[in-house]
Amino acid sequence: MTTPDLRTGTVAAPPRPSVLHGQAPVVAVVAIGGAIGASGRYAASLAWPARTGGFPWTTFWINVVGCAVIGVFLVVITETWAAHRLVRPFFGTGVLGGFTTFSTYAVDIQKLVDHGRPGTGLAYLAATLLAALTAVTLAATATRRVLKRRRR
């Protein structure tokens, strides 16, 4: 809201919120969560490395599992639990954003094409998209049903 200055006839801008009440905490928790999620993804890629030119199963399952978890999380955080304002950016954007890796998905497709496997690249492209959308939808639906039963 603006405040008119009756002496000069100008309108003063509202005071800026302090850094502690602005975006700095959000940026900080997203960064911390992102580091945690990316570390988990990296650990999974070390535990189950992809074969050159083969189907990138680790990235596929990371993205599918991450989408399922976000389906559960968003239902819980928006429909049942009044969480602190930083929980959603920390876990949803940070941890799960760092864990899932749709940029690696795009690079994997390019690598498959470059290694003469365009059919596998196309299958991976379609399978990941379909599986990720299915995972988030099924997880959100199942979470709503479970929560509805618990309320009875």
Notes on the structure:
By secondary structure, the chain is mainly α. Helix content is 70%, strand content 3%. The chain has 5 helices and 2 strands, in the order ββααααα. It has helices spanning 24-47, 57-79, 87-99, 102-114, 118-151, and strands at residues 3-4, 11-12. A two-stranded antiparallel ribbon has the order 1-2. A hairpin with a 6-residue loop joins strand 1 (3-4) and strand 2 (11-12). The protein is extended, with a radius of gyration of 22 Å. The termini are far apart.
How do the helices and strands line up, and which of them pair or pack?
Blueprint: E1 3-4, E2 11-12, H1 24-47, H2 57-79, H3 87-99, H4 102-114, H5 118-151
Antiparallel strand pairs: 1-2
Helix pairs in contact: 1-3, 2-3, 2-5, 4-5
**Percent of residues in beta strands:** under 5%
Quaternary structure type = single chain
Largest sheet: 2 strands, antiparallel
Averaged pLDDT: 90
In short:
The protein has helices at 24-47, 57-79, 87-99, 102-114, 118-151; strands spanning 3-4, 11-12. The protein is mostly helical and 152 residues long.
Keywords:
152 residues, mainly alpha, two-stranded antiparallel ribbon
